[in-house]
Request: fold
Amino acid sequence: MDETYIKVKGNWVYLYRAVDKHGKTLDFMLSQRRNKPAATKFFARMLEVNGLPRKIVIDKSGANTAGIKAINKMLKGFGCPIPIEMVRRKYLNNIVEQDHRFIKRRTRPMLGFKAFASAAATLDGIEVAHMIRKGQLTPGICPFRQFAELAA
Reply:
């Protein structure tokens, strides 16, 4: 799990992204802040969609650490016996760091976005197209057909 910066209305906003160890995109979320509530919201949404992981690799961000601790506290309240292990190593999140460049390659020529809603919609399309390109959604079907079905 990691976040990257995107410029909206001249201000930096944060694109939270989660990628598994095989390079498949699990979830993404655009947030105006990089703090504990934003990280907690992203982790909760990611866990709801993808299930409970054993480990999460993050950088040394305090917001992400606080978010995982808050999620572990919630899981303990629900009766989950094993908390999510948090791994904070400098080079273990290189998979997600390298995956950021595909998003940056598409957004850098745009020189930022005018509105948060348009940035979120555009980044959703870029992420879905990137997931299709990686062969992540439905193997054996034409990528254009998948995109057309998702867009409809």
In short: Residues 2-151 form a domain with the Nucleotidyltransferase; domain 5 fold (CATH 3.30.420.10). The radius of gyration is 16 Å. The CA atoms of residues 40 and 71 lie 7 Å apart.
